[in-house]
Amino acid sequence: MEVKSFIGGFDKNFSYLVWCPDTRLCAVIDPAVEVTPIFETIEKYDLTLNKIFITHTHHDHIAFLDDYYKLNSTIKVVGFKNLEKDGLDNFIGVEDMDCISLGNQILICIHTPGHFPDSMCYWVKHDSIIFTGDTLFVGRPGRTIGRKSNIKELYNSLYNKIFKLHLDTKIYPGHHYGYKETISIKDNIITSDFFKCTNLEEFVRTMKEFEKNRLI
User: Fold this and answer.
1) What does the alpha-carbon distance between residue 73 and residue 177 come to, in Å, rounded to a whole number?
2) Phi, psi dihedrals of residue 78, rounded to the nearest 5°
3) pTM for the complete prediction?
4) Which of 59, 72, 130, 215 is buried most deeply by CB count within 10 Å?
5) What is the pLDDT of residues 58-72, one digit of tens each?
């Protein structure tokens, strides 16, 4: 699978344009940044926009969705089956470990609640890449201070789902909050104390310390 990243939006958001090199079918993961450069890239590489994948429905991650509907009113929008936002046209609801095709490519949907109930990661097993939204960044996890956040669920999503994948899997996060744009699961674990916790209680303490220091 080919991947091109675009940064912008409300807070160093990423949108990813991904495509099947055989069929030229493409998708956007998180319509979070201004669309003109993405549309120009679709045209440059002679791609056909096929789907939108949503990692979760916080506003900054779907801010430009209407622009895609304007381009193609029948475009399919993929996200967790129980979205926290109603009224998305042409919606395909997926569950944990469902598979969605993009040409000859397969994206495996991994439900990763914690930061938000409808958080979904998209894993391309064949290419060892995963799009993690706000569940996992370079250097730290997503925050759990929101009204619908749940730190226990986030711990489970990280330690019992994402970190069980092959450690060479490359992370494509929802924001550019780290010292580089992407990182392998292995290197993220090695370089961050958030990912060395041995149990939930230790993870909670680490996250509380992080939030306390943010307030200073």
Assistant:
1) 33
2) -105, 135
3) 0.97
4) 130
5) 999 999 999 999 989
